Structures are given as structure tokens and as C-alpha cells.
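Worked example 3 (structure in, sequence out).
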């Protein structure tokens, strides 16, 4: 009989989970192989065997965060209303951040950088947002440069979610601020005619 596998998927999962928590709650330099292996009840050899080393482990955490956010954003249904789709994407982003606070902190805390001028990969979380913005631009609902609009929306979302995760906003305040701020950001990029018609509809009610 062969030797039993000790560095299996269960060990791999524990290492990723422990590394995620440590990266989210401690300075990155404190993530040592010895510390994460001890937390995961594994050996430093397991880290090398499963990930090739510390950089590979951090990469696995990053990949999990990117994949998770992309999956949730991509699952958001599209409609005939690009503005409704953009708001739905914002809701999905917030929901993922609240449900995966450690991964969110790791993703936007230095492990993964946001490069608004870089090439968008096939599984980049920004892709669903850019697609919705492109539809809004094509329909003359929004006006501007797609990447600039995406960065504006992302910066707004990130600020709101970060404050919420830090406990700076209570639940009711966070919900109200989210709704009003996202709508205000979208309105800032609307074409004048769409903005006027929207305001007229609101005043009519």
C-alpha cells in the first residue's frame, strides 16, 4: 500500500482559509509560513507541496477572492434597463463584500490591485460592470468614457462597503446611504435628457 496523502484538499482548504483570515486581520508581513501552517494544523512542507511557497499561497487567496466576486457579479441577470442592471450589480457587489468580509479585505487591501488602465481579463470582476456601462452608453443613457465611469462607481461602492464592514454605519444608515449614493453616482453620468426625464418622473410622483 502507498503512503496516505497528508497534503490533501482538506489541508489545502485550511491553509487558504487561515491565510485569508491572517491577511485580512494582520499586517501582510506577519504572514509567515510557520504562522499559517500552525494555524491550519499543517506543516510548512505542506505549503510548499500544495502552493510552491508563500507567494503561491497568497496567490491562491487572491484567486479565490477574484473568482468569488466575479461569479456573483456575473450571476446578476441583465434586463432591458441598463440603469437597473448597474444598480443590481452594485447590490451584488455589496452582498458579496458583506458575506465574504475577509476575502473582500484581502482583495482590496493590497493583494489585488485595481488598474483602471490595465487589460480586462476574461474573469475580471470589472467585466460585468463594464458590459452594463457599455449598454448604457450605447443607449445614450450615460455619457462619458467607460473606464472612468467604472472607476467612479467602483470607488463609490468600495467606500460604502468599507465603511459598513468597519462598523462605521448601522444597518439602516448603511442601506439608506447605499441606495441614495449609488443613484447619485449614476445620475452624475447620465445624459442631460435622461436626467431631466427622470427628475420629471420623480416630481410627478
Amino acid at each position: 500500500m502507498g503512503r496516505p496523502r497528508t497534503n490533501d484538499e482538506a489541508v489545502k482548504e485550511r491553509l487558504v482559509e487561515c491565510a485569508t483570515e491572517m491577511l485580512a486581520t494582520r499586517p501582510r508581513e506577519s504572514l509567515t509560513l510557520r504562522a499559517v501552517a500552525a494555524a491550519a494544523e499543517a506543516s510548512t512542507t505542506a505549503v510548499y507541496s500544495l502552493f510552491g511557497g508563500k507567494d503561491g499561497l497568497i496567490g491562491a487567496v487572491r484567486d479565490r477572492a477574484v473568482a468569488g466576486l466575479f461569479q456573483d457579479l456575473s450571476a446578476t441577470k441583465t434586463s432591458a434597463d441598463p440603469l437597473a442592471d448597474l444598480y443590481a450589480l452594485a447590490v451584488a457587489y455589496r452582498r458579496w463584500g458583506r458575506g465574504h468580509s475577509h476575502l473582500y479585505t484581502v482583495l482590496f487591501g493590497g493583494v489585488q490591485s485595481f488598474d483602471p488602465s490595465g487589460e480586462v481579463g476574461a474573469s475580471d470582476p470589472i467585466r460585468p460592470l463594464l458590459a452594463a456601462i457599455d449598454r448604457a452608453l450605447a443607449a445614450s443613457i450615460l455619457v462619458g468614457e467607460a473606464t472612468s465611469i467604472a472607476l467612479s462607481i467602483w470607488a463609490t461602492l468600495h467606500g460604502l462597503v468599507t465603511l459598513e464592514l468597519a462598523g462605521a454605519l448601522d444597518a439602516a444608515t448603511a442601506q439608506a446611504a447605499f441606495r441614495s449614493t449609488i443613484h447619485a453616482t449614476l445620475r452624475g453620468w447620465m445624459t442631460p435628457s435622461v436626467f431631466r426625464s427622470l427628475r420629471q418622473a420623480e416630481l410627478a410622483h
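Notes: Residues 31 and 58 are 9 Å apart (CA to CA). The longest helix spans residues 54-74.
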